Amino acid sequence: MGKAKNFRFVLGLSHVLSFLRLGGWLKVYWVKSVLNKHKKRDEWFLDDYSVNPYFGCPFNCVYCYIRGSKYGADMAKTLTAKINAPTILEKQLRLKAKKGEYGIILLSSSTEAYPPIEESLGLTRKILKTILKNRFPTHILTKSTLVLRDLDLLRKIDEKAVLPWDLKQKLRRGVIISFSISTLNKKLAEVVEPGAPPPKERLEAMKKNVGRRVFWLVWFLFLSYPTYPTLRRSWIGWLKLLRLMVQNLFWLGL
Ligand code: SF4
């Protein structure tokens, strides 16, 4: 994440109060670049770019691919806000737009764009404003219902976004919101996704908001048996989850 200074910093009174409420401090970085261009579009998420407003992740999923890498075993401890990301992104997107290099931006690939601190910090919201201004399409991949706060901006992005030429006929949407769900079992979720909101909240949020001009997707994460032998009984949970989704395909506008 760029050569940036790493020190603890308090942004203002409202943030002091929210940090106190959370019982901790937030580390912040000043980055030199925040837009990652992929060599090839991802076939699953359709992203040509990714933006990570934060470093680390308080949801701490046990299956997360960033776990144990430079982010550490406890990714909540390394949570860091890329505090100047909206300003840097504005410069980077303006250049890309000038060259006509439109592509889908994934928020996010190696963090959660909506950790609890986002509620008071509004970093992801500022990033979305920049994306809207520069008319880039966006894919939000999240486990947090806080994404609902930004539906106003996301609808505008959906209307204004310029899709890459090869997706114009196939996609016709400027915004995709995806929730990832590994289980509907609350107790199991508390083990495998200890910091994330309960999975049922995600489904409820989606159910309430489908049909409000936003395209929703759900990604099932099938936890692997050899890695998590204690999760064997969760087959039943997965089957229930599949049944629930099939029964409710209309939520997704399919
Ligand atoms: S929410 Fe995503 S980035 Fe965060 S720990 Fe879980 S899988 Fe990793």
Note down, in words, how this protein is organized.
With 254 residues, the protein is α/β, with parallel strands linked by helices. The protein has eight helices and ten strands. It has helices at residues 13-22, 85-98, 118-121, 123-134, 151-160, 186-192, 199-209, 234-247, and strands at 6-8, 27-29, 35-37, 49-51, 54-55, 80-82, 105-107, 138-142, 175-181, 215-220. A six-stranded mixed β-sheet has the order 3-4-7-8-9-10. A four-stranded mixed β-sheet has the order 1-2-6-5, with no helix packed on it. The N and C termini lie far apart (38 Å). Bound molecules: iron/sulfur cluster. Residues 57, 59-61, 64, 66, 75, 111-112, 143 line the site of iron/sulfur cluster.
Quick take:
The protein has 254 residues and is of the alpha/beta class. Helix content is 32%, strand content 15%.
Q: What tags apply to this protein structure?
A:
alpha/beta, pyruvate-formate lyase- activating enzyme, single chain, binds iron/sulfur cluster, 6-stranded mixed beta sheet, 254 residues, 10 strands, disordered C terminus
Bound ligands: iron/sulfur cluster
Strand content: 5-15%
- Tell me the number of structural domains: 1
The total count of strands amounts to 10
| Most strands sheet | 6 strands, mixed
What's the topology here?
Blueprint: E1 6-8, H1 13-22, E2 27-29, E3 35-37, E4 49-51, E5 54-55, E6 80-82, H2 85-98, E7 105-107, H3 118-121, H4 123-134, E8 138-142, H5 151-160, E9 175-181, H6 186-192, H7 199-209, E10 215-220, H8 234-247
Parallel strand pairs: 2-6, 4-7, 7-8, 8-9, 9-10
Antiparallel strand pairs: 1-2, 3-4, 5-6
Helix pairs in contact: 2-4, 4-5
The structure holds iron/sulfur cluster.
Iron/sulfur cluster binds at residues 57, 59-61, 64, 66, 75, 111-112, 143.
